[in-house]
Specification:
This protein is an alpha/beta fold. It has a domain at 8-69 and 185-251 and 347-403: FAD/NAD(P)-binding domain, CATH 3.50.50. It is built from 13 helices and 18 strands. The relative contact order is 0.19.
Amino acid sequence: MIKHTKSYYAATQNTAIEYPVLKGSQQADVCIVGAGFSGVSAALHLVERGYSVAIIEAQRVGWGASGRNGGQWAGFYSPDMAVVEKLVGQEQAQQLWAMNEESKAIIKERVNSYKIDCDYKATGLFMAAYNKTHLQFMQDKIAEAQRYNYPHLQAVSQQQVADYADCSQYVGGLFDADAGHVHPLNLVCGQAKAASDLGAAIYQGSEVIAIEYGKQPVVKTAQGQVQAKYVIVCGNGYLAQGKAAPAISRKILPVTSYILATEPLPEEVHRKLLPKDCSAFDYRYLLDYYRLSADKRLLFGGGTRYSGKDPSDIVAWRLPKLLKTFPQLKPFKIDYAWGGTMGFTYNRMPAIGRVQDNVFYAQGYSGHGVALTHLGGRLVAEAVAGTAERFDVFNRIKHMPFPGGKLLRVPMLFMGANYYSIRDALRN
């Protein structure tokens, strides 16, 4: 069985459960492909409703982005609501906003209901500005929040920045009081255990090689198969690298991000570094994001790559960025460095929809997946149960394939990312 990547999360994982490899022919009401947040969330909602559920995972529960990410949970979609309104209209934009807010509540509900030990904190999110353009973006974000009756955003002046992050480069920011952070691997594994305890069958080390569609879809692996009434595909960024579901995978782009974890910091350092113990990110196109872990390490992420190839030395590549933001951390060593693949859509909205009447998918959270995956799981479970009104709000959003196909889309996006990176540098 493949192990988790050598991350801080894997090193501090609660007791891992060894689920079996899928062998032979099995049956279930619902077969779910992928044991990340979306798949496990859907499974838990479905077993609570009395469905028999089988989850098939190529590696381990939480092996992909769900167990490697920055751990920040917050509201908002990747595009601004003005963009969302153009996509779906004002009425459905209001519904999408309400569901986004619900996504945060689902995490809290799961943590409390199933007593999941995952360092859950509701200490807020600081969004940092490097220049006047970023400050204007933030004023627009405050106006947007007011239009949607969201009272939790507040502007942060340059003089107030030190109350949130000890970085002299920031010229201001925003603080979202209704946000926080979590140990993502323990969160996803805790929910998987809850689903398993309620009767879900979970199979690890079982890569899906084909899905046969029809009245009774069959999901096949090298050593077994599951025949089900419904199939839910939740492979996200890793699905785009395989051949199991081409109709879905061509509309998603795998994007890799990287995280460094320092050694535990002394109290006098971490209290000044992030006084509110909130999570944080900056407003650049190729942004950095960070937070403190439960044992007071700084987890510092960023370094987006579209090529699918990891740098030869993650620490050497990312450490200069960390020290530029927080030069005071130069004396402290880096204990962990890792990367993980997210799924992005062309319009940056989550792709939650149908392949056919009994085959659903949830993917493409575009960097906002910790909370939105939990909503995606709930919506596909509702659709399976025959209540698809909320699911269909997402299903009606049109998702285009990335231009250039698999051969050219990476260099095209690389050029675009470089353009925005240079623009950010010129604005600083």
